[in-house]
Amino acid sequence: MNQYEVILDTMPATNDRTEILFRQAGDGFLQVEYGHEQRVELLDSFRVLAVDSKIKQQQISGLIETVPSLRANLFHFDPLLISMQELIAEIKKAEESIRGVEDMVIDSRIITLPIAFEDSQTKKAVELYLKQVRPDAPNCEGGYNLEYMAECNGCSVAEIKQMLLDTYWYNSGCGFWPGGGFFWPMDPRCKMIVPKYNPPRIWTPEGAVGIGGACLFTYTTATGGGYQLFGRTIPTFQQAMKHPQFKDKPFLYHPSGDRLKFVEVTEAELDAIYEHVHEKTDYQYDIVESKIIVKEYLEFLARPEVKQGAAEFAKRQEQGAITAPRL
Amino acid sequence: MLKIMKAGIEVLVEDWPGRLGYMGLGMAAAGAMDHLALQLGNLVLKNAPGEAGLEIAGGYCQLEFAEATTIAVCGADMSAKLNGQSIPLWEAIAINPGDQLSFDHFGQYGFRSYVCIAGGIDVPVYLGSKSTCLFGSYGGFQGRKLQPGDEIALGTATANGLAGRRINPKYLPEYTNQWELRAIPGPNSAPDYVTVAGMDYLFSTPMKISHNANRAAYRLAEVPAYFWARKDGGKGGSHPSNIVDHGYNMRGAVNVTGNTPSLLIADGPTLGGFVCVANVIQADLWKIGQGIPSRDKIKFRLTTVEEAVAARRDSLAMLAAADLIIN
Questions:
Q1: How many domains, in total, are found in chain A?
Q2: Which of A98, A146, A196, B96 has the smallest CB count inside 10 Å?
Q3: ipTM of this predicted complex?
Q4: A164 CB-contact burial (10 Å; exposed 0-12 / middle 13-18 / buried 19+)
């Protein structure tokens, strides 16, 4: 064991869960990670959220907050009130109380968001990046990121856009910037993977939509960022809380569980919606209350055409990953 | 009330420990970059140690007081003057209506100075804190840095006869141009993400703070190629610094994007797709706030959770010491 070892404890894999690793992450942080492999499996997220909700019900003294993500959960705690070992023991108890995720039903709203591909604002962000940060960035070939996204996945730009529109995108948990959700494709045939900017951007416009790894992010406000950009959607955050949708909180998304579906519009249509959200405050967001029935989702994943389509896409991605330049 | 006459580089309302409990919604804790100076200043004035004060980064600002009160200036020496006369740091100073408090620029040591006011600063408490999150544009005074003409309401002092109280010199923090930051490895460390040689490099090499340093992140100097134990980031992306997005152990995370490490601090991102190889312990976070961008260096020193927790206790004991304040 080297002096930099951080895995303090583990729980072995069982029939209905992967191995769980408890990684020290500071004097007030513990990262609970599911498995060793960098995998993108929504079932991991379902489990993370089930355990997270269990732990929150227990109101553990000294636990300040948790930051759930797709395959990990970060615990922020006060070590003067609860020790790392005591916290691990509490989490283990919660883990043991959760059986398989197959019987879970998850509250999951469906939010339909208009998107304009290749809009002038995200193009400007790429242009600025080339000018100010990395003039030779291979992901900005032709002044935008879509060509590179297609190349990485062994497909065409048109196919990339179609995949973005075809699948539901599931939020494993908010983070990064106020109100920002981390969305993952529910249809494995649409699971595109792209590297993140190296180094990151200094500016990204409000509403930009990007992908990094297999994760989609809608930029809530103008910020830096590292995801490949392909379009812009409507506001998902309103600091002023003027619009009725934001009257109780500035966020559009729930902390986790929401699903997004994109519909293509023109940039002019999109800009008009901005006015109706931020100025006239009369835009009607398209949000439908719904649930994910995990059993049905597993059945969808097991369909022959889904499995075969996903396997074929993975093969093309493998080729793409070899030929696309690294960042 | 106090009025901003010159706003300098960046003057903000900040408290301590900031806005805890909202990381899962993408909201960073924000808070004073040098929590030690802020807390000492408040204690001189018999305020609660975490009460909000003005955080002055870099200097070049001037304030006018419209009412009688008592203040303490703590932190970096920026040749503070009251009506043109030099005033001592770390000491309670009586203020009369019309008094002008001015700051030159930062000097040889330290980058941030704090103005604490008896009774504190009267801005709305937003989600449990008066701190400004500059990058999210919320909290503090209208969610932004202060501008000339801004009028800031002050709290009401409950104690009299404060003037002359000062910090016992034996407790004053030591300033330098090479800051030793005690850090705990994790959650991404050797052997699975970083090589042992890479971690050795991290914990033995003084790194210059880049000019690219703000309240969200302090960029440092690049790490060598042998830093990485992986050839890529798997499903997280093609660079070994990529990971399937996870919560950041923030404040204090040592986050590596591409080959560039950054310290994620007050307003930093709460979740993202890059590895975090270590965490600066809470007791040493204040030093980052005093590091001068583009000039000072930092050096990480390996420590353990046990030592870090002991350092937290020592820090609290110091703030509660019977001989902390000399009358």
A1: 2
A2: B96
A3: 0.97
A4: buried
